[in-house]
């Protein structure tokens, strides 16, 4: 279950919610995964999900202002990577709850628009909570580790 750290955390760090901060979080996170000897497919899925999550926080929770911070926590589980992202930005409208909608016509989407479809395709156990002034999104990305 995400957000319950039964295993030691690989990474827990705060980053500025800026393009450079997101880049640093991705680099740090991917470096922490090296000792796990994950497959190239698992690494690609993890990097994609992390990039979407972190960019969404920077762009939407803080409106691209660069004035906030985000916290990234990664925990290796026997068969998954547990991810937790927290921030103090705006609430996620509607949250990620509910079944994945049918894929939209790509021509009808603005630039981007595929983020949650990509996240849902690779992540499980997605849980979003909003407490006063704070967002917490937890999920698991299944890996080939056992």
How would you describe the overall organization of this protein?
The chain has 146 residues and is α+β, with helices and mostly antiparallel strands. The chain has one domain: Histidine kinase-like ATPase, C-terminal domain (Heat Shock Protein 90, 2-Layer Sandwich). 31% of the residues lie in helices and 29% in strands. The protein has 3 helices and 5 strands; from the N terminus they run βααββαββ. The protein has helices spanning 19-33, 40-61, 115-122; strands at residues 9-16, 69-76, 80-87, 123-131, 134-142. β4 and β5 (134-142) form a beta hairpin. α1 (19-33) packs antiparallel against α2 (40-61).
Report helical residue fraction: 25-40%
Q: Using the CA coordinates, give the radius of gyration.
A: 15 Å
Work out the count of structural domains: 1
CATH hierarchy, class: Alpha Beta
Query: Mean pLDDT across all residues, rounded?
Result: 85
* Count of beta strands: 5
Please write the string of helix (H) and strand (E) elements. EHHEEHEE
What ranges have pLDDT less than 50 throughout 5 or more consecutive residues? Answer: 98-104
Walk across the major sheet and give the strand order.
1-2-3-5-4
CATH fold group = Heat Shock Protein 90
3D shape? globular
Strand count, sense and barrel status of the largest sheet are: 5 strands, antiparallel
CATH superfamily: Histidine kinase-like ATPase, C-terminal domain
What labels would you give this structure?
3 helices; 5-stranded antiparallel beta sheet; alpha+beta; Heat Shock Protein 90; 146 residues
Topology:
Blueprint: E1 9-16, H1 19-33, H2 40-61, E2 69-76, E3 80-87, H3 115-122, E4 123-131, E5 134-142
Antiparallel strand pairs: 1-2, 2-3, 3-5, 4-5
């Amino acid at each position: 279950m995400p957000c319950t750290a039964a295993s030691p955390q690989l990474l827990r760090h705060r980053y500025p919610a800026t393009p450079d901060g997101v880049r640093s979080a991705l680099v740090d996170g991917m470096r922490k995964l090296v000792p796990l000897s994950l497959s190239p497919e698992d690494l690609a899925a993890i990097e994609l999900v992390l990039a979407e999550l972190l960019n969404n926080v920077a762009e939407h929770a803080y409106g691209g202002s660069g004035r906030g911070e985000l916290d990234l926590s990664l925990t290796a589980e026997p068969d998954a990577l547990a991810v937790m992202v927290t921030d103090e930005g705006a609430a996620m409208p509607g949250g990620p709850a509910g079944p994945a909608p049918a894929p939209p016509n790509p021509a009808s989407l603005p630039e981007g628009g595929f983020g949650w479809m990509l996240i849902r395709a690779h992540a499980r156990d997605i849980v979003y909570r909003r407490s006063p002034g704070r967002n917490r999104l937890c999920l698991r990305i299944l890996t080939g580790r056992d």
